[in-house]
Amino acid sequence: MKNRLNEIIRNATAEIAKSADIETLEAARVRYLGKKGELTAVLKSMGSIAEDERRVIGKLANDVRSEIEGSISRRKRELSDIQLKAKLMSEKLDVTLPGTAQKVGKLHPSTKVLNEVVEIFLGMGFEVTEGPDIEFDDYCFGMLNMPKGHPARDIQDTFYINDKVLLRTQTSSVQVRTMLSRKPPFRIISPGRCYRVDTPDATHTPTFHQIEGLVIDRNITMSDLKGTLDQLAKRLYGDDIQTRFRPHHFPYTEPSAEMDAGCFMCRMKGCSFCKGEGYIELLGCGMVHPKVLSGCGIDPDEFTGYAFGVGLDRLTMLKYGINDIRLLFDNDMRFLSQF
Ligand SMILES: [Zn+2]
Fold it and tell me: pTM of the predicted model, to two decimals?
């Protein structure tokens, strides 16, 4: 039996040293130390030998086992070192190669201008409210003093979903929602996407963005409106920019006006950008029509208010000197990455 054990250790050591990879090594371990392995077989047959010889053989068998185990783990370390070196050699890293550039996104120019406008109004105590793009005809027209058949509806060619529901043509619908759901006083701006049946050209797109504002309180006058919008123009384009108001007509405000801001390109001297005028048209505004107030459950004898609406896309084009609105919707990264 001693001879058998010596033979096992000789064979095992040779086989372990010879094994060229982890799999062969594992096969050798199973062959000698596994449940049906050669050393295990010797241990199992020990019951048949005499007591004192069994003690000697048992100790020897244990020595053989730990020697084989030691050889296996040594060889295992050697093999994984060899594998690691081979891997490192095959995956040589050239640190002098240029890296892969990561493209970093940035805000759309319209989003930048919107953030700027929101910041200006938040500073003046306004809050931002939003409403759904798919809107009731009543909130978009009816309650804004434009009943069915009103001629002012015609200039806002509308995408209708059915007789009562449409894609909003203006964010004024959010003003109606606010007046219906809250008690004055409040001052809000409502930015959002609007839709009109328009053939795209340099100044029109079927989808565009508006920022509307509404202030309802006691003793609100036209001078509050003028002061607030004058501030907007100055904060956007510079303190030396002046504004002027021209009479206009909107069904939902009385009196109504359009506001021009001094041309910031030529500092109001007159240039091709403002067509020699020194001013550029900026927005529409007015005092909320008493009929609109009472229609929304607000007593026009107690409360007055003003409203305005400005095209975000127009503000963006003015700010960055963009001459075609379609560029803002094309998603052409070559164009957008300039801002
Ligand atoms: Zn100009």
Answer: 0.67
